[in-house]
Amino acid sequence: MTRIKKGIRTGDRWDMVRLQNGIIGYISQNYVEEAPPVQIEKIEISIDKENNIIQKGENEKINVKITPEEAKDHEVIYSSSNPNVVAVDSNGNLRGITRGKANITVKANENNVKATIEVEVYSKVTDILIDNSDVYMQVGDTFKINASIEPDDANEKGVIFESNKEEIVSVDEHGNLEAKQEGTAIITVKSKENEEIKKECKVTAVRKMEDWEIHFDSSLNVNSLEISGIDYDKNKVIDLKNLITTDLELEFVNYKGKILENNDIVGTGSKILVKENGVLLREYKIIVYGDSNGDGKINSTDLLVLQRHILELQKLESIFMKASNVRKTSSKPSSVDLLLIQRHILGFQEIEQ
Question: What pLDDT was estimated at residue 289?
């Protein structure tokens, strides 16, 4: 029976009790013995997900079964072995934070009875970033399209490259392009996990320029269709023109497509358009390392832009990501690059172009 109210009079004390059949009455304490307090003897836990896998950013509730039934309302404590992967609150609500695994433990507050399960967080592909969306190549040229998966902790980072016109521009499994004949082709980059997530790059193949038709000063780093190595203090259009020898037409535009005049500054994302009788033969993209916003300067604005990118508040376009990676590694820009840009601004360590 269950005591509802304890008798408090002196002498024979009568307790109000409820029998198992629900009948309520009174019984003298002389005829009963008080059982020890009920405690949790066993805890069983689970989540409603196959193989205990939840998605990054997903919320899930832990199912808890306590034995005996009388102890089901007793307090339990929830904890995660790695809250940076799977967070759990005091009510047993889980949240997937980042890719990985963590042990979730539910323990009785009154004793050492506990149960643990391993929960895995799966990070789905949400986007693909490519470093070029519009490329001009000469017949016979090769060029590489770099693609990266978002988010950084995605489980499946593989991509598929396809060309809609292999006879004009071919592409291999690593994103290496080869211009075979004049014309236009569309290169599609798809996520292996979800082919609905994709990006396209338009590639125009034009006639091959002979080596003698254009010459760049050795101070510049000309890597296929990208140019870096520009002196940070001499990055006006006229400065660059003096480093290029050619009889072809040169037109400079900024990353927004605005035509630049001789005294305008050339920044990240600016282009040098090489033309013949108005027909575009080649397009070079400019990279100024540390210039994250394309104005050709390295200052606090670049720090802010890169910081917002790292915090995933505002994503940088591919060419600006490359310029922000002042270490020139294959990885994405990080807080290390942020520090190096800051040191450049303060005059402690100049960024090598």
Answer: 95
